[in-house]
Amino acid sequence: MNTKDQVKVPFVRIVKRDDISIRKSFLIYFVAIIASLVLCGIILFVLTGSSPGNVYMTIVRGAFGSQRKIWVTVRETTLLLGVALALTPAYKMKFWNIGGEGQILVGGIATAAVMIYCGNIMPTWLLFVSMIAASSLAGLIWGIIPAIFKAKWKTNETLFTLMLNYIAIQLTSFFTIFWESVKGSGSIGIINSKTKAGWLSTSFMSGIIGNYNFVLNVMIIFILSILMFIYLKYTKHGFELSVVGESENTAEYVGINVKKVIIRTMALSGALCGFIGFLIVSGSSHTISISTAANRGFTAIIVAWLAKFNPIFMFLISLLLIFMQQGASQIASDYNLNESANDVITGIILFFTLASGFFTNFRLIFGHSRKEE
Predict the structure, then answer these.
(1) What span, in angstroms and rounded, lies between the C-alpha atoms of 5 and 196?
(2) Cβ atoms 320, 60 nearer than 8 A
(3) Which end is more exposed in the chain, N or C (fewer Cβ atoms within 10 Å of the end residue's Cβ)?
(4) Buried/exposed code over 33-70 (b: 16+ C-beta within 10 A; e: otherwise)
């Protein structure tokens, strides 16, 4: 005879979702964004005394208040998206690459070196080929070192890639001092400011969209997004790294060389991060410093993970973060707040966005008890 036993359980339980529709996932993100904006508005109202409506208009004006601000927002969004795309293969393989920051920096160093030493002696086409090759190779080396150690000796890739970031920062500091245009200035200034050798130019489109040197960055990363989607979804390599990410044992069972996949995937991820370093130095800042990566290597991890490696969602999340950063800078300027206000607002947005990522994967069940056989 079956009996029913009362089993005490916690009032709130966390249960993993088996599946969630795109519509419901989008709704969760939307609610989180609205909640974060409301909280930001309340905090800024307390700090500034201005109405939430004025605060939100200031945020919009900071990101889209002029043609140049619009293009700066687009530029920063696409650069963050580019880093997220570069990190995606590694994270889809469950290789925790925390070294995007360092891989960008070494790519930037390589780009700057070619610009400085070869800018005035190489033909333009050869100069750009050399810059792209040097930056990608530098990033590849920085990515493949921890991959080899992981594949051969099972080292911790999180710590390994994180430590390589600090080495890259110190290398950047060294070369910044070595290349100082005015000794003791602490800066190398704008590279090839007179000849603009090695600058990505958009003069052929200036009559349409204005003479902004970073427009090619947008076009290149748009193409990179399409290529990454195809690579992950329709190629053999993309399938293999997905299988390795799900289970290394399963991958070995079906005949996939796990060590080879790890090294190959991190070589690609590192090379793409180095290439983003090229886009930043050649197509945007035209200089190199320890702030060249601007923490994109860390922020992009959140972007890629929350978007579940979908390039469209990665773009939307990148746009949201940059929109709030630009808006927060405008608020700090208009209301005489210090730069920490920017970090506070960005932190709030990230917190709510991360929370929405949690609720797309898990759900809460409320109840004091349940009956089991």
Answers:
(1) 79
(2) no
(3) N
(4) beebbeebbeebeeebebeeebbbebbebbbbbeeeee
**Contact between 118 and 321 (Cβ < 8 Å):** no
H or E stretch covering 7: strand 5-8
Q: What is the DSSP letter of 285?
A: I
Q: What is the spatial distance between Cα 191 and Cα 346, in angstroms, rounded to a whole number?
A: 31
Of the candidates 115, 116, 90, the one whose C-alpha atom is nearest the C-alpha of residue 103 is 90
Q: What token pair was written down for 90? A: 């590694």
Distance CA 232, CA 131 (A): 27
pLDDT tens per residue across span 277-291: 999 999 888 999 999
- The stretch 45-65 carries a mean pLDDT of 83
> Which of helix, strand or coil describes residue 347?
helix
Spatial distance between the Cα atoms of 190 and 213, rounded to a whole number of angstroms: 14
Cα–Cα distance for residue pair 10/366, rounded to 1 Å: 8
| Whether the Cβ atoms of residue 335 and residue 48 lie closer than 8 Å to each other | yes
Q: Of 322, 368, 321, which Cα lies nearest the Cα of 349? A: 321
d(CA 370, CA 220): 55
Tokens of 217: 């960055």
